[in-house]
């Protein structure tokens, strides 16, 4: 699944900041900035869903998931950790 590849890229941007890379800039700006992006994207997901705009919902969901993954990595976690929880819940 692509999410694992994306998670590796996010980790690399945290461990090896790249000049001009959006993900690196999020880590540099810190937790508050990352969390503001989550709040912003969550609001956009809600609006897209209420408007029944499937294309916009897909795009905003991708943005929300990306920023969630950045938050996880910023806290020393990964998408695999979340996957493990979901798998355990569905046994």
Keywords:
about 90 residues, mainly alpha, Helix Hairpins, 5 helices, globular
Descriptive overview:
With 91 residues, the protein is mostly helical. It contains five helices and no strands. It has a single domain, classed as Orthogonal Bundle (Helix Hairpins). 81% of the residues lie in helices and 0% in strands. Helix 1 (2-15) packs across helix 4 (54-74). The protein is globular and about 40 Å long. The two termini are 21 Å apart. 13% of the residues are buried. The mean pLDDT is 97.
> Could you give the distance between the termini?
21 Å
Total domain modules: 1
Oligomer: single chain
| Main sheet record | none
Beta content: under 5%
- General shape: globular
What is the CA-atom radius of gyration, in angstroms? 14 Å
Q: CATH architecture, please?
A: Orthogonal Bundle
Helix content: over 70%
CATH fold type: Helix Hairpins
CATH class: Mainly Alpha
Mean pLDDT: 97
For this structure, what is the CATH homologous superfamily?
A: MazG-like
| Contiguous helical run count | 5
Number-wise, the strands total 0
Which sequence of SSEs, written as H and E, runs from N to C?
HHHHH
Secondary-structure class: mainly alpha
């Amino acid at each position: 699944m692509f999410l694992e590849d994306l998670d590796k890229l996010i980790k690399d941007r945290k461990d090896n900041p790249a000049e001009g890379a959006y993900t690196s800039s999020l880590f540099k700006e810190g937790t508050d900035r990352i969390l503001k992006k989550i709040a912003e994207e969550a609001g956009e997901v809600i609006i897209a869903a209420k408007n029944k705009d499937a294309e916009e919902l897909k795009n905003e969901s991708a943005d929300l998931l990306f920023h969630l993954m950045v938050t996880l990595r910023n806290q020393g976690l990964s998408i695999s950790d979340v996957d493990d929880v979901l798998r355990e819940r569905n046994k």
